Amino acid sequence: MTRVRNRDHVPLDVIPKGDKCCALSHVRAWKAFVASGDSHCVLLEDDVALDEDAAPLLRNADWIPHRVDLLKLERFGPTSQRVLLDARVPVSARHRIGRLRSRHTGAAAYILSRHGALSLLERAGPWALPVDHMLFNPNNSPVASILRPYQLTPAIAHQCEALGGCSDIGEWRAVLRQFDWTYAKRELYRAYFELRLLPQQILSVLRRECVLVTVDERQDLPFAR
Q1: How far apart are CA 151 and CA 98, in angstroms?
Q2: Domain residues of the chain, as ranges?
Q3: What is the rounded distance in angstroms from the CA atom of residue 140 to the CA atom of residue 117?
Q4: What does the alpha-carbon distance between residue 132 and residue 141 come to, in Å, rounded to a whole number?
Q5: pLDDT at site 164
Q6: What's 217's DSSP letter?
Q7: Mean pLDDT, consecutive 10-residue segments, the chain of 225 residues?
Q8: Is 109 helix (H, G, I), strand (E, B) or coil?
Q9: CB 107 within 8 A of CB 161
């Protein structure tokens, strides 16, 4: 979702049609939010399940620090999913937030400030990445470097097939996963982008600037990938 001028900024190369359509739905939501005049919005995809402690946090935006333009509310992947966060600050009796320093994809539940939405819309253009990578993967997203996404812990949302059913964009992805020379090149290119920040991430842990956190629990873990 950034304007691409050279291949160095296209880490995933080909974006499937389904992922483009998904991104367009988010763009439409950002535009509607900006038109509303509100200061913040919560964006929820159709398969998201909210925890019972979500309601107190979502009633208003008073608890969100001024500097936070993008806040991920969900846990994506297994319950043991770990993400690298910098120093966390409490936002309620039970929850804290920290800047996301490693990949945590999924875009089913997040809070966006008006400034964050305007920044995203200014950069909307040719599809360089699926929307969840663009928002929440600092390993390969230039937009994530600008928006500086934060993660809420413990998470208050997760994707649930019982609500939204199985994804209907998988068929477009399957075509790109057929093994050939193009696929091999794309995966090597992807691996480079995913690993290029690893030395910096390890150093940040050794310096105690960041910590690996289990998103669903208050548990700080040693660095591991």
Answers
A1: 6
A2: 7-221
A3: 20
A4: 10
A5: 54
A6: S
A7: 40 69 91 96 94 92 95 89 90 94 93 96 77 90 90 92 59 55 64 70 80 72 40
A8: strand
A9: no
Residue 208, pLDDT score: 81
Token reading at 30: 């950002």
Per-residue tokens: 21:
């359509």
Which DSSP state fits 76? Answer: -
Two tokens at 207?
């310096």
pLDDT at 181: 58
* Sign of the torsion angle spanned by Cα atoms 199, 204, 208, 210: negative
Residue 6 makes CB contacts below 8 A (sequence gap 6+) with: none
188: its two tokens: 């090597």
Judge whether 215 and 81 are in contact, CB under 8 Å. Answer: yes
Q: Which two tokens stand for residue 16?
A: 């499937």
